[in-house]
Amino acid sequence: MAGIFGGVNLNNFQFKKENNLAYQSSTCDDITYGRKYIDKFDGERFILETKEYICIFEGFLFDIEAFDNQKEFIESRLEYKSFKAFLKELDGMFSIFIYFKREEK
How far is C-alpha 105 from the chain's CA centre? Predict the structure, then answer.
């Protein structure tokens, strides 16, 4: 099944890979995270990791005409101090995981 997965302190646990889905995962400190996905829509479904945060996005947003793709839209708006405003801007059908490294939230 496609989607976002993750966990804390999994001690080298391996999430099940499926033949018909692409697989992407990583570990940051004690957090293992990733996604299984249909390999389409480049820039629309992604993992984005910076010094500040980890963001995994699956789905579709509406009204982002000024951007080439959803990844650019989210990158341009994702800041911790305006997080609530960021969430209010999102209009669509999606799942999102965001972890702020410095705040450990």
Answer: 15
